[in-house]
Amino acid sequence: MLRASRPRGPRGPRRRWVRVLSDMLVGSWLELTWADLSSKSQLAIEFVHQVAGGAADKWMFWVHAGTRARVEEGFRTIADAVKLPGRNQPKADILQLVYSWLSNERNGSWVMILDSADDSDVFYGASANTRDGRPLATYLPQSRNGSIIITTRDRDLAFRLTGNYRNMVNVGPMTGEDALMLLEKRLGSLSDVDVAADLVRVLEFIPLAISQAAAYIQARAPRSSLEKYLVEFQESELKRARLLGHDAGDLRRDGGASNSILTTWDISFNHIRSKRPSAADLLSLMSFFNRQGIPEFLLKPSKQTKNAIRASDSEDTEDSGPDSSDGDTESRFEDDVAMLRDYCLITANEEGGVLEMHGLVQLSTRKWLETCGLQETFKHQYIERMAESFPAGDLSHWATCQRLFAHVEAATDYRPVDGNSQEIWATLLYNGAWYARLRGRHDVAERMLRKARRTREKLFGTEDEATLASISLLGLVFLGKGLYSEAEELFVQVMETSKTKLGADHPDTLSSMDHLASTHRNQGRWEEAEKLFVQVMENRKTKLGADHPDTLSSMANLAATYQNQGRWKEAEVLEEQVMETRKRVLGEEHPDTLTSMTNLAFRRARAALGGLKA
Fold first, then answer.
1. Of 4, 69, 449, 494, which residue is 20 to 30 A from 13 by alpha carbon distance?
2. CA angle 23, 29, 34 (to 5 degrees)
3. Is-contact 230 198, C-beta < 8 A?
4. How crowded is the C-beta side of 92, counted as CA atoms within 13 Å?
5. Is-contact 490 472, C-beta < 8 A?
6. Range of 48-57, 162-171, 553-562 with top mean pLDDT
């Protein structure tokens, strides 16, 4: 979210682009395409501050569009900013709520920036389909009172989103003159213009590479200079070739991602590690997160690290107070952030508390860690911190899940080598899949659960409770996708194993029977479903009590089965019993109670229309 601010006159080479945007943006969509690694986002920011920021009554929305999860998070931020009613309900359709608000002209004028929309699958791929089957792109409104600026490196996606080439602005790489201006701005007066020209040329006029090279030279001055940096850069041709030769497809995935950028970063990484190892550690840890919206609290030293720092400090200094060590740790963290920002490796939002880094910086960092033999060390730290922070199956922490899920999703591709880390990783994926399933993200949940299941089977065997939990949740995902045969196979496996290991009346066994009964009901196998539901209900009454939430859920499921068979009177009697018990045990405002009231009202309405069977 960007607040309105006083417009300032554009300076430097972006002046002409800001003027072009201002002339074109009139209640429509505008796409900035084929920009280099940093200028498209910077141009959008410049436009907002210089032109749109002058309107105090205009809403300014900034949405990171690198992944589906980040777009949803951006829409959630909009919903909170405009205080949309119903946004905090667990099953609220945030996308639809925000779409409706933006489409309503009575809500005033607005500008939305969709930044880094470089993946067409986010908007049009199979994984982009929402709970009602609509692609994510359909939630971007066409409105006379609003405009959307989209920054992307994908020209085809730009056309699909705008539908008109006239609404697309191609922002090319810097010219040599602009690149020299940037270098002079970062370093001050240039001692040798010819050497400076050679340097920006070998850096391929990419702003991020130029800024970072200048930061490196300044940090090592007077022992470094334009000439020394250029010589050092050109001497690393073999190293540059080796980096590009390893996993070249990934390293070259962005058009502006040249080998020279990777080499520049490698030089800086080694320098940072030699000068401030803790800053290099912070960068290393950040490289595994989703690149956008990384909460600082996930990056600050853990209790174990703080204890190690205290132990180290106590050998040299006396205790200066109970809060001294924590204060020193916080100061160290801020110094680390400052150093990485000086090198243009990370950015921080204006409000604080959230850091970001470019995806190519992350890739280069991970490759550097691999070269140094440290990749697994920081991968473990990342997985451990996410596992500690992401809630496990608790709706009361829904907001936390929403905030962190993009970083959990990123963990799917980071399977560790160490067995202990694998156990933590599998648990993290399981918890993430639980949340993804409830959000209707079944494909994402399935991918997470398949990996969690395989890992747990390898570590603990096929009959371990953790393994069975992964299989059971995977069955629920299949059930949600309408893959009833696949779900049935998994539920039968879990049920039979649980009966053998835990007993026929164990809660986990009864849960698997309940899931299997639900599958039969969805398949239209009413008698089999009824038989299982009755068995589960009676066992839960005996083991857990008649008022236990699980018992009441079994009764509600049985009522739904009666309804499917047209046995309306029996369904109504059972549902009324569930509703009254939930009112007494959970309260009238509890979601489960409200669900029972809705179900009962529906059945009574059907009865009034003559839907009863004798």
1. 4
2. 85
3. yes
4. 19
5. yes
6. 553-562
Here the tokens at position 374 are: 């440290």
Q: Which fold, 12-170?
A: Rossmann fold (3.40.50)
Cα–Cα distance for residue pair 357/346, rounded to 1 Å: 4
Report the CATH fold assignment for 390-608. Answer: 1.25.40
C-alpha triplet 109, 114, 120: angle, nearest 5°: 135
Q: Which residues contact 566 (CB under 8 A, 6 or more apart)?
A: 611, 613
- Which residue bears the tokens 């602009």? 178
The one-letter amino acid at 245: G
pLDDT at residue 8 tops 80: no
User: Which uninterrupted H or E stretch holds 213?
Assistant: helix 207-220
Grade residue 603 by pLDDT with cuts at 50, 70 and 90. Answer: confident
Q: Report the length, in residues, of the chain.
A: 614
How many CB atoms sit inside 10 A of residue 226's CB?
21
Pairwise CA distance, residues 129 & 132, whole Å = 8
Facing residues of 59 across strands? 110
**How does DSSP classify residue 175?**
P
> For 86-115, what is each residue's pLDDT tens digit?
999 988 999 999 999 999 989 998 989 998
Domain range annotation of the chain: 12-170, 176-372, 390-608
Pairing outcome for strands 168-170 and 29-33: parallel
Whole-model pTM: value is: 0.66
